[in-house]
Specification:
2 domains; single chain; 6-stranded mixed β-sheet; 6-stranded parallel β-sheet; alpha/beta
Length: 330
């Protein structure tokens, strides 16, 4: 009798496995679509994120798309987000260039049962489910401590930023905290408005005016390649410290040349890849209600923040970026 039962059990295993494989194969409908909405989508940072989105979508055999203005245009991002919602996607990843503009849009999407996760730049007062990205205050703290060390604890710093971006505000707070017990002072905070030309012009004015600037710090990806160009043309390389953000090819090139002292590397690929996987899980297993205030619920099925990490790139390890393995399937 036991032999018969065992035989029946063994015979049922292939069928069970087939059922499981069938379920796994049908877990994603062919019309599932995940959309990334961002500002300044043509820069290398967002091209890297687009690769992460596409890789995740390819693994799950679903659709994906990137929407947003080519340049820095918060209102254009608002229009792109509204277009994304109109497409009724399975989920939206968004980096908020201006949270005050996008918060009502994000709330409207959640109210239509479209999951929304913020990446890179948060909209913390919105109903977004959670944030996937850099601990931006900590990134600023790391950059600030490194800058202070390179300056031997004293001197004047000019900082390039974009106003209204919550991630850059957090990074600035990190830098300010790092400088608190030093003689390093932030003497200029320049809104370069997402334009490398604006960063170039302002850096040139400071260099030409003989202003006492011992270091330039960039809180985003676009400014420091332009600043490095100015410093290099003025033959100030090695005399003026530059601490950048991100690993755009031009930034990496200036690090190799010794003009940019170091850069704080983020992981936009990881933000979009992992964020898409999390969106997919929420699409198939949504919390109820979707727009619940999960940040203040001790039984929340979702986190508030997923830290994708940062690391410092300088002359000692910049070569490792070129040797980094390409994700399978890319």
């Amino acid at each position: 009798m036991r032999t018969v039962q065992l035989s029946l059990l063994l015979a049922s295993i292939p069928a069970a496995m087939l059922l499981l494989n069938s379920c796994a194969g049908s877990a994603h409908a062919p019309d599932e679509n995940y959309i990334l909405v961002a500002d300044n989508t043509k820069i290398a940072y967002w091209q890297l994120a687009a690769q992460g989105l596409a890789h995740a979508a390819a693994e799950m055999k679903v659709k994906s798309n990137v929407l947003g203005p080519d340049g820095h245009d918060p209102q254009g991002e608002h229009d792109a987000f509204k277009h994304a919602v109109a497409l009724k996607p399975s989920g939206i990843l968004v980096s908020a260039a201006d949270a005050s503009i996008l918060t009502p849009d994000i709330n409207a999407a959640l109210d239509q049962n479209i999951p929304v996760i913020t990446i890179d730049s948060d909209a913390p007062d919105s109903k977004r489910l959670f944030f996937v990205g850099t601990d931006n205050y900590n990134a600023g703290l790391i950059g600030g401590k490194m800058t202070a060390k390179l300056m031997n604890g004293k001197g004047n710093v000019a900082i390039f930023t974009i106003s209204n971006q919550s991630n850059l505000k957090d990074r600035l707070q990190g830098y300010m905290s790092a400088f608190e017990h030093t003689e390093v002072k932030i003497t200029q905070t320049i809104d370069m408005n997402g334009s490398g030309d604006t960063a170039f012009d302002n850096a040139k004015k400071l260099i030409d005016s003989k202003a006492k600037v011992d270091a330039f710090v960039c809180l985003e990806a676009i400014a420091c390649p332009a600043v490095a160009d100015v410093v290099n043309r003025a033959n100030q390389a090695g005399k003026v410290i530059i601490v950048a953000m991100d690993t755009d090819p031009s930034t990496v090139d200036w690090v190799n040349k010794g003009v940019i002292s170091a850069t704080i590397a983020q992981k936009p690929y990881t933000m979009a890849y992992y964020g898409t996987k999390l969106l997919d899980d929420i699409h198939h297993h949504p919390p109820s209600p979707l727009a619940g205030d999960w940040n203040k619920n001790i039984f929340s099925p979702i986190p508030t923040f997923v830290d994708t990490g940062t690391f410092v790139v300088d002359k000692t390890n910049v070569g490792s970026l070129a040797k980094a393995p390409t994700p399978s399937g890319q």
